[in-house]
Automatic annotation (TrEMBL):
Signal peptide: none annotated. It comes from Rubripirellula tenax. GO terms for cellular component: ATP-binding cassette (ABC) transporter complex. The chain crosses the membrane at residues 64-86, 113-136, 374-391, 403-424. PANTHER family: LIPOPOLYSACCHARIDE EXPORT SYSTEM PERMEASE PROTEIN LPTG, SLR0882 PROTEIN-RELATED. It holds the Pfam family LptF_LptG. InterPro entries: LptG/LptF_permease (IPR005495). This is Putative permease YjgP/YjgQ family protein.
Length: 432
């Protein structure tokens, strides 16, 4: 009895008197047989043990998972570049001879496409990386030994789930702040890497100013319209019903004027320099050099909120716009806001939540309780992805065409259907 008390007191004395920087785990004193007071000696947890939220196994699994994500993305990107480059090799070689080498030209041309490819395939690659990583751990026996140590699947998958959330966040940042700056480059063909080729123009009607904006062609990168033809349906005394010029440029708003188009060498009306600026109430619409000192002779400025990007026939310019730009187009009273544009705006808002839900849908396949073959699990994962996009595409089509669903409901319905299922699957994995 005395020996047991002395052991407990000495252990506590050493633990309390030791400096904080030198505290180490102390061994538990051995109990004296058949002595009730020493059956439960000083517990080991009284010794201060350093705690780290990220363990060695977490770092190992996270490294393996991120490496798998990188390999999958590089494989898909490599296949895309090889097939596309072979179909456009003549144009790329010709551009390389003019611009200092083939590799710089390919890097400048395919660089933005890597961002677009990551935005398209990020969630699917992450789901496949889940399957490959856990499949590798199961094949090497590391998964069995880890589970035998009392670690659950939920704890084992936690670093990969957090990394998946970070990947979805990186996709969001790329989609909102990087891709909009490269949408002109992504709409270019291989034979026009410089972006100076002309493309057809999509006429837009300014409902506020009652002006139809049209022209022969558009150079999106330079924000230029060749042979603009603006039909004036509003009341603009002296201007007639047409405004013609060889070329016009888009100009952002300044202290002298709002945003709009600057027409050079105006051909019609012929007496453009004699006409005063006109507008509605206190809002000028057509500026001339007669009363605007910043304009040169034969120049005319048309103030409008119809941006030059809205004149592109390529819909990728709209799909790669940021959420703020899409919201501005929907709220712009000067242009018609279609139902499909409203659906696209809501889809962009909930896109991160939908991507993360898609990843969580595959967690039961990752756990693989029945011990199925890895390729069977990959096939099941691809079926899950196809079902996910089928629901999303069907709802988007119904909302864009006005069938049964409003634009907001068409965009949010996939998340309403899939979100709870994804959460239940996450909870189910946590308990295994």
């Amino acid at each position: 009895m005395a020996g047991g008390r002395w052991q407990r007191r000495s252990s506590l004395a050493v633990w309390r008197s030791a400096p904080a920087s030198h505290l180490l785990p102390l061994p538990c004193p051995a109990p004296i047989p058949d002595h009730p007071q020493t059956l439960f000696p000083v517990p080991c947890h009284l010794s201060p043990v350093p705690y780290s939220p990220v363990t060695r196994i977490d770092r190992y699994i996270l490294t393996l998972f991120l490496r798998t994500v990188l390999i999958c993305f590089c494989s898909i990107a490599g296949i895309f570049v090889v097939f596309h480059a072979f179909t456009s090799m003549d144009e790329l070689v010709k551009q390389g001879q003019q611009q200092g080498g083939l590799l710089p030209v390919m890097a400048r041309y395919y660089g933005p496409y890597m961002l677009l490819l990551f935005d398209w395939t990020g969630a699917i690659i992450t789901l496949m990386a889940f399957l490959f990583t856990v499949g590798w751990l199961r094949r090497t026996g590391e998964l069995t030994s880890t589970l035998a140590a009392g670690i659950s699947h939920g704890r084992l998958l936690r670093p990969m789930i957090i990394a998946s959330l970070l990947i979805v966040t990186v996709q969001l940042v790329s989609r909102e702040w990087l891709l909009p700056d490269y949408r002109d480059a992504l709409s270019m063909k291989a034979k026009d890497i410089t972006g100076t080729a002309e493309q057809p123009i999509s006429p837009q009607y300014d409902k506020v100013n009652r002006v139809l904006i049209d022209g022969r062609s558009l150079v999106a990168k330079a924000s230029t319209i060749h042979e603009p033809s603006f039909r004036l349906d509003g009341d603009f005394p002296g201007f007639g019903d047409l405004l013609l010029a060889p070329i016009c440029h888009w100009m952002d708003a300044t202290a002298d004027h709002g945003a709009g188009f600057l027409l050079d060498s105006v051909q019609y009306p012929e007496n453009i320099d004699e006409l005063p600026s006109v507008g509605v109430a206190d809002r000028p619409i057509l500026f001339t050099s007669r009363d605007q000192a910043w304009l040169k002779p034969r120049q005319c400025f048309f103030a409008t909120s119809v941006h030059v990007d809205l004149l592109q026939t390529n819909q990728s310019a709209t799909r790669m716009a940021s959420v703020a730009e899409l919201a501005g187009r929907v709220r712009n009273p000067a242009i018609h806001s279609s139902l499909s544009l409203r659906v696209l705006l809501h889809e962009r808002i909930i896109r991160p939540a939908l991507d993360f839900s898609l990843i969580l849908l595959g967690l039961p396949l990752v756990v693989n309780r029945r011990g199925r073959n890895l390729f069977v699990m990959i096939g099941a994962a691809m079926g899950t992805v196809l079902l996910f996009f089928l629901i999303k595409t069907l709802c988007s089509a119904m909302g864009g065409n006005g069938y049964w669903l409003s634009p907001a409901m068409a965009a949010w319905l996939p998340l309403i259907l899939i979100g709870p299922v994804a959460y239940l699957r996450l909870r189910d994995v946590q308990l295994v």
